[in-house]
Specification:
5-stranded parallel sheet, 5 strands
Amino acid sequence: MGFKLTQEDADKLNTKDGLISILSKEPYNVERALRYVNYLQKLEELQVELIRLQTWAIEKGERIIVLFEGRDAAGKGGAIRRITERINPRHMRIVALPKPTEEESTQWYFQRYVEQFPKAGELVLFDRSWYNRAVVEPVNGFCTEDQYKIFMKQVNGFEKMILQSGIRLVKIYMSISKKEQQKRFDEIKNDPLKQWKMTPVDERAQQLWDDYTVYKKKMFKKTNTELSPWKIIRANRKTEARIACIEHILSSIPYDKNTEI
């Protein structure tokens, strides 16, 4: 049975977003366009709830951390942009720390992350986090075996202290297939507006795929605790992954859904 268009579907497509969705990509595909319009509608509904959550957090002085991990090109940045594009920027920060400086390299590993923690009423989103040391660093030889082992011994206690201090912590891992990662890398390399995103670490990601898998499994086994669990988001389809990320954040924070905005 072929795809059938209802009157409601037709009304959705007969809008600015609907027409753009149909005409933006060839060959024209009405079913795909309708799926995208439904995504935009759902995204807007969820972004209203994010504003409500943030308003509640500001009023109550809540401190919230949401950290994103995942394979290179898994869509962490895109998900973060959809989460933050409608909320109050004065009460939100995105943290994507560069390689540690020489001075930072001599400090306690977690120190530079702690310095980025939220103040009362603030939401902080980490685009990669202290979990660099659980996967990216050992796979690429950026840390020693002893440094890795010390991190793995300390991380659960560190997160327990975060939670006991009253900070709310949400951990999201975005997962894609090896085939999808290669497809996205090819798109980045062929787009002059995106080529800057490709890093030396990205260049080695396919070659080191199995090594990443080994360390990822070790990370989940050790740090997917009852107190501080991971949420794995299947991210081969970007739109579905973005919706899933927002829904998980909203379900993880016990905000007052009657908060006025």
